[in-house]
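step: validate -> pass
step: tokenize input -> pass
step: predict -> running
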Amino acid sequence: MSRLGDLILLERTRQKLTRKQVARKCGVSEGYLKDVEEGRRIIQDDQARRILKTLGTGAQHENEFSLDEIAATVDLGTISPQKNEVIRQPKEEKPVRETKPVSKEEQSGIWLDALSSVLKPVPVMNAGWVQVDRRLLPIQDGKIEGANPDRVVYYKMPDDSMRAFRIERDDLVLILPQQLPLDGTIMLVEYGAHRVLRKVQIFDKTRILLQSGDREMRAEQLSVSDIHFLGRAVRVEFTL
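step: predict -> pass
step: emit ->
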């Protein structure tokens, strides 16, 4: 069974509801709900919201991962191809043995585990390398943008020093791990007491040009040995 299926089954049985009752309230077939509970189907986010809210559990998880945040981040597909659902008269269910109520903490943990193979909370770091937020990103084939999910971070731009490259203050820049310089890319680097975003231009094996620019372009020529390359920028997110 899936973790999400566990959560739905536990809450349904705790409230002594049959699959037929829950399915009718949610507008799905009993067979559909059975597949979800037995882990044979990952349901779409709007369907998950409907079922969890019908059971009265949806709001309990919004402090950790709001259902709206999930819907805005990823469209959860199904494991098996969709078929037209036909509601049939269900077989009489055997009485369900009463189970111990599940605490809010346990329900929250089950919900997070259900999402852990689909979504990853990525930390948002400021210029002082302190986490100030987190964003959910989809995991595909165990990776985010082809990288180890545990090594991916967002860098919150502290100023307009890269405005010439369309990166402005408070923009969130997705950084993938990269320890060697890549010519022509924007990278997160450390040198001296600075941790900054810069566009990298390679002169030769020993010299690097770091470019930035707000109202006018600037460039610093440094030795490769003086620079610590943390990662490369692959995406910029901003708020309108």
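step: describe -> The domain at 121-237 is CATH 2.10.109.10 (Umud Fragment, subunit A).
step: cleanup -> pass
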